[in-house]
Amino acid sequence: MDWKSSSIDALLERALIEDRAAGDITTGLTIDPGLRATASILARQEMVVCGLGAVPRFMEIYARLDKRAPAQTRFEVVSHPEIFDGVRVHDGQVLAVIRHNARALLSCERVILNLMQHLSGIATLTRQFVDAIDGTGARVLDTRKTVPGLRTLEKYAVLSGGGTNHRLDLASGILIKNNHISLGGGLPVVLKQALEGREKSQRVQVEARSQAELEEALQFGAEAILLDNMTPKEVKNSVKLIRKSKAGKDIPIEASGGIVLDNIRAYAEAGVDFISVGALTHSAKAANISMRIAAETE
User: Fold this and answer.
1) N- or C-end of the chain: fewer Cβ atoms within 10 A?
2) Residues 99, 139, 167, 177: which is the catalytic one?
3) DSSP, res 285
4) pLDDT of 104-130, one tens digit each?
């Protein structure tokens, strides 16, 4: 992740502006502007950490926003070499230490924790799904079911948890779903148009919700199949059908819909290559992370 990219910089700046961190009334009225402090970011549960790179960026952006105290630009963020995004950590483990102006730490505390808790929650949930299908050969995919504006970071969190990114956006891949088929004049029509109009490097994937739809997709040249809202047994039968087809040996097969931790292994053992799980990003519980701040004694 390039935490210094213009898009990430703008996202983090908006978070600080939204919270009006540079106008923190309580901190401005109660904390000596010259006081320096040390903040320890702590894991409060077993989790997969994600978002550490945002910490120094928040500090740098805050210094740019707060014109009242130039001294706030002097800071240091320290973490142990073994702590980085994607690593499993334990309850009570220190993730990073920030030495900075006390006002800056107090004003940025909430946005730092909000983002790290959210991203670490996604990474932690993703790792649970990945572990659940270990040894099957299938891979866990994310979806586009992300918080608007946070997709890049949320998909990065999926990677940190050991998952694989599906298409980033609507321009990143061709996936013909039932609404395209019904609005576009039927599968033979839309699939023909997609195959003729796509770039050479693009694979045309078709969603199938039944064996009849699957057979039609195979008949008219689908290059990848998404088996949607099928039971593990139906998926297993569909995989057999695909592999017996003319081009079936090389067709990537994905399963999606209704997949949770309790049943994902059954889908993986049905023979699919990929399993997409929207819950990774739309239902991940925020990880429990806290910040402990103490005045420096020099």
Assistant:
1) C
2) 177
3) P
4) 999 999 999 999 999 999 999 999 999
14-41 pLDDT tens trace: 999 999 999 999 999 999 998 999 999 9
Residues with Cβ within 8 Å of 215's Cβ and at least 6 positions away in sequence, in order, are: 241
Query: How far apart (Å, rounded) are the C-alpha atoms in residues 111 and 12?
Result: 9
Closest CA to 66 of 93, 28, 32, 37: 28
192 belongs to the catalytic site: no
Residue 246, burial from CB neighbour count under 10 angstroms (0-12, 13-18, 19+)? exposed
Question: Active-site residue among 88, 99, 110, 144?
Answer: 110
Instruction: List, for residues 35-91, the tens digit of each pLDDT value.
Output: 999 999 999 999 999 999 999 999 999 988 987 655 445 788 888 889 999 999 999
Distant-in-sequence, close-in-space partners of 255: CB < 8 Å, separation ≥ 6: 226, 227, 228, 230, 235, 267, 270, 272, 274, 275, 276
What does CATH list as the number for 134-282?
3.20.20.70
Structure tokens at 116: 């790290």
CA dihedral sign of residues 211, 216, 219, 224 = negative
Per cent of the chain over pLDDT 90 is: 89
**Domain 6-129+285-295, CATH homologous superfamily name and number:** Quinolinate phosphoribosyl transferase, N-terminal domain (3.90.1170.20)
* Known active-site residue 64: no
| 145 tagged catalytic | yes
Catalytic residue among 88, 144, 145, 236: 145
32: annotated active-site residue: no
19 catalytically annotated: no
Which of 123, 129, 101, 100 lies closest to 47 in space, CA to CA? 123
